[in-house]
Amino acid sequence: MADEKEKKEKKEAKPKGEAKPKVPGADAKAKAKGEGKKSKGKGRDAGAAAGPTIAEAEPPARVPRIKEHYEKNVLPELVKRFSYKNPMQAPRLRKIVVNMGVGDALQNVKMLDTAAIELGAITGQKAALRRAKKSIANFKLREGQPIGCMVTLRGARMYEFYDRLVNVALPRIRDFRGVPMRSFDGRGNYTIGLTEQIIFPEINYDRVDKIRGMDVTFVTSAKTDEEGQELLRLLNMPFRQPQR
């Protein structure tokens, strides 16, 4: 009896600390806040693990072998041959201009588009249109009418084109005996005419609609034809040997 009485007194006794009333939705907010902190912490960890992105260093550009040949072999030979006081006085290639005339463009404009595509494939650079500077009634030519296309090569593309022309294209000409030595302009610049574009390996013979020729001009820094000729000769230009 005494035990039951004690239990009853304990139940009736008022608790020292009453529990606070629960606010509806408080548990959900607390849970969401905790999950937000966790996700934020994971994001920081992932960023720290990834670390700063460092761009990989690009490999140095390959020097064209004709340019390398000029700097190592041709330049010292020119300085010795003409007794230059400064190596910068020695002649060098400045640019190569490839010009393709398309007379058929007067009747069919598509022929000009085809020629521009072929010239771009040969040189590796987009061709620019050439337009008539004046009108010629006999040829039914109007001023400003496109009559051809051309490309001006400098830098690495110039040396690469020179390499392909001298070592690949020119030897493919039938009965090739060398290029003439008379085509200098008096100031060290040299021009040769090619009768067929199919000597270049970039042109697919089966897809050619018409054989087209072109003029290739080598613009140098030489002051005389003798200097320009010696420069091109040392750069392996296959000049025709004079007949004895």
TrEMBL record:
Residues 146-239 form the Large ribosomal subunit protein uL5 C-terminal domain. GO terms for biological process: translation. Residues 46-60 have a biased composition (Low complexity). One of its GO terms (cellular component) is ribonucleoprotein complex. Residues 1-21, 28-45 have a biased composition (Basic and acidic residues). Residues 1-62 are annotated as: Disordered. Signal peptide: none annotated. Residues 86-142 form the Large ribosomal subunit protein uL5 N-terminal domain. Keywords: Ribonucleoprotein, Ribosomal protein, RNA-binding, rRNA-binding, tRNA-binding. GO terms for molecular function: rRNA binding; structural constituent of ribosome; tRNA binding. It comes from the Bacteria. Part of the 50S ribosomal subunit; part of the 5S rRNA/L5/L18/L25 subcomplex. Contacts the 5S rRNA and the P site tRNA. Forms a bridge to the 30S subunit in the 70S ribosome. This is 1 of the proteins that bind and probably mediate the attachment of the 5S RNA into the large ribosomal subunit, where it forms part of the central protuberance. In the 70S ribosome it contacts protein S13 of the 30S subunit (bridge B1b), connecting the 2 subunits; this bridge is implicated in subunit movement. Contacts the P site tRNA; the 5S rRNA and some of its associated proteins might help stabilize positioning of ribosome-bound tRNAs. Belongs to the universal ribosomal protein uL5 family. This is Large ribosomal subunit protein uL5. The lineage of its organism: Bacteria, Candidatus Eiseniibacteriota.
